[in-house]
Automatic annotation (TrEMBL):
Entry keyword Nucleotide-binding: no
Annotated stretches, region: Disordered: 535-557
InterPro entries: PbH1, Pectin_lyas_fold, Pectin_lyase_fold/virulence
Protein's recorded name: Right-handed parallel beta-helix repeat-containing protein
Signal peptide feature range: 1-31
Keyword Signal part of the UniProt annotation: yes
Lineage: Bacteria, Bacillati, Bacillota, Bacilli, Bacillales
Provenance organism: Paenibacillus chibensis
Protein keywords: Signal
Alphabetical list of SMART domains matching this protein: PbH1 (SM00710)
Compositional bias of kind Pro residues: 541-557
Amino acid sequence: MLKRTARKAFSMLTAVLLVTGWIGADSTVKADGAPGTTYYVDNAAGNDSNAGTNPDKAWKSLDKINATTFAPGDHILFKAGGSWQGQLWPKGSGADGSPIVIDKYGSGGKPLIAGVTSELQTVFLKNQQYWEINNLEVTNPSPEPFSRDWKGARGERRGVYILNEESGILNHIYIKNLNIHDVDGVYTTRSGGIIFDSVGSWVPSAFHDVLIDGNTLTDVDAYGIYISSNCIVRYGMGDLWEWVPKPYGPWTPSTQVKISNNTVVRAATGGIAWNVTDGAVVEHNTVQEATYLATNASIWWAYADNNVVQYNESFAAKNGSEDGTGFDVDAGNLGSLVQYNYSHDNAGGFMLYVNDTYNTINTIVRYNISQNDKARIFRYSGSIDTVLNYNNTVYVGAASGNPVMSDYFTKSSGSPKNIKNYNNVYYSVGDKGWTLTGQTFDYNAYYGGKTLVSSDAHKVTASPKLVSPGSGGTGMNSVNGYQLQSDSPLIGAGVPIADNGGRDYFGNPLYNGDPDIGAFEYQGTVPPATGKTPITYTPAPITPMPKPPGPDPGNLA
């Protein structure tokens, strides 16, 4: 009670001070009530000998900022329209409720921080926490050509690099509304636009409370956004990529990770990827023309638990010789939900499910739309176990170039199994058919091409009467052509699925009568539900795999 009264009195005092002008332009008020300091940086009119605490007494250079240790609640504001060349690496950490904030002041364009070839990262934090970085323009070019050798001349170059090196759990790093472009790195997951990297060979290290939101990343090599870690050892896991620091640490996931509302255009290898997380949410992002210099998937994740991937648009991946899919549930993922996404015109296909090291288990893919994805629509590779694909709409038009509907590969980790497909629409003007090993189908719709799975006991093969199949364009809202006409045979022809998420791709509630087939649930007048028994998803148990032959990856030097 006493604390509440004190806080209330302080809030009233703060309001009076603001009105009367006792708190000036060079101060902020932290969440815990203690004032922080606002520092201004002006590349034209500033001077490093100034106090920096007023726009008329601004600092000038990055060197001044980099030499300063900031305190919780401090703000570092760059003048809009200004530009600086070099590396931005302010020191210090904020505190819970009082982060240190980088932002802009004044009107005009975002302040530009342009990297130099002598520094691999333009904006850098190392073993720091409670920071928010907003509203900057960032570049990091190199005159050297792109190389698939990760030790190439460009180096592991980054726009924003957040490094946790043997520091345990670091909290609250927010990266928002940046314009990052022309970051010229090499073929490695540790190079690109925004990179979070945990290195915990001796001290298990990770991040908690990460937000990467509203950023635009263009022409970034190799990745647009990547969350990396070497704290990955569990369940008999084998070796990882050569550029991940060894020895590996025990599996220590980053938590409360959200990647949202970002646009990634022309990432050389992959658009958005993450590993060693628990409960990551990746939503409302757009990835365009990823993999244009080297093959990978546009949006993919590995060695992570309880992933939610939703409301994303992934399209026009360029290199599909190996991956090149819109989405990829990669090695070692335990629990992934992929829903309400739009994948189109990707060179390698729609969905990749892969494992090379230890089990990828318990994946649900529902209420997504795939249009004119190429090469293969679904690829299953290695020890995939328990996949439930339902109520997806797949359109294979002429632009798809006669893809495989699904293929299947056994690897040293094992073979795919327990793949179940319900209530999906497969509409094709030309495809090469399915590899059905490990899969079951029921209550799906097949129209055209070689899509038909004859063993499907409740299949629908009549014209699905979609409003305008193949008419989707760019944008999540461009796909109304995949809704059902009022006389579609898919209305009420599906089987109910328990715990179905409660909505279709378009936001309509489920169900209206018996379930419809496809990503759209018709909302007009329909007969009442007939009481079909719902399909219940039963996750597979997770047990350690046998230790792989060879040296212990945790002890590799």
